[in-house]
Design a protein that fits this description.
binds adenosine-5'-triphosphate; Rossmann fold; 2 domains; five-stranded parallel β-sheet
Length: 198
């Protein structure tokens, strides 16, 4: 089964694109929301987090104190790298077992850090969703009710679109000028063709 990785900067519209694939009955694994869930369900990951960041990271009931953990990792680059070194393999494990349960011609993994995490290496093809920066910023301000400064801080933690374009097999332009749905349907047909020739 073909594995397609979809990524894009914050506010580029990658989730919106994935919803269109889902309408074509293509299953999508949302790596970022899975990562959050795994911090409560993956025993190995929970042990690693507790051992490294201290048992205060979880309450006695096993609930993750996200604010506490965020305060640690967002003030110390090495701590963030360490957390990612636990979380990314847990997401890989979860994706691998999810794939085994699917029966579609191809599946999609949506991940903000597809390239940064190395996860793209396990995909057959990768798709980058791009949008002009001003559009990305205004979408996120509207969606998350945060300031432009906060959006830019988040953006600066990710690779630029230019760097990601070098690595991507396909690029979808979500600039609200070119129609998005026909671009997605073209890719869907491309992946169906490629999966039928496997
Ligand atoms: P994040 O990385 O923050 O999760 P994302 O890349 O997944 O963002 P989306 O959540 O798909 O982006 O889109 C961000 C916001 O922009 C959403 O509110 C979405 O509805 C809106 N949006 C995305 N694409 C379009 C479009 N072509 N036209 C209008 N609104 C759009």
């Amino acid at each position: 089964m073909l594995k397609i990785g979809i990524t894009g900067g914050i506010g580029s519209g990658k989730t919106t694109v994935c919803k269109v694939f889902e309408l074509q009955k293509i299953p999508v694994f949302y790596a970022d929301s899975q990562a959050k869930a795994l911090m409560h369900t993956d025993q190995l990951l929970m042990e690693q987090i507790k051992n490294h960041f201290g048992s205060d990271v979880y309450s006695e009931q096993g609930v993750l104190n996200r604010k506490y953990l965020a305060a640690i990792v967002f003030s110390d680059e090495d701590m963030l790298k360490k957390l990612n070194s636990f979380v990314h393999p847990a997401v890989f494990r979860a994706f691998d077992s999810w794939v085994l349960q699917q029966s579609s011609p191809y599946v999609i993994k949506e991940a903000a850090l597809l390239f940064e995490s190395g996860s793209f290496k396990k995909c057959d093809f990768t798709v980058l969703v791009t949008s002009p920066e001003n559009l990305k910023v205004s979408r996120i301000i509207k969606r998350d009710s945060i300031t432009a400064d906060d959006v830019l801080k988040r953006m600066n933690k990710q690779l630029s679109d230019e760097e990601k374009e070098e690595l991507a097999d396909f690029v979808l332009c979500n600039d609200e000028k070119q129609l998005l749905i026909p671009q997605v349907l073209n890719l869907h047909n491309e992946f169906l063709n490629r999966s039928s020739s496997l």
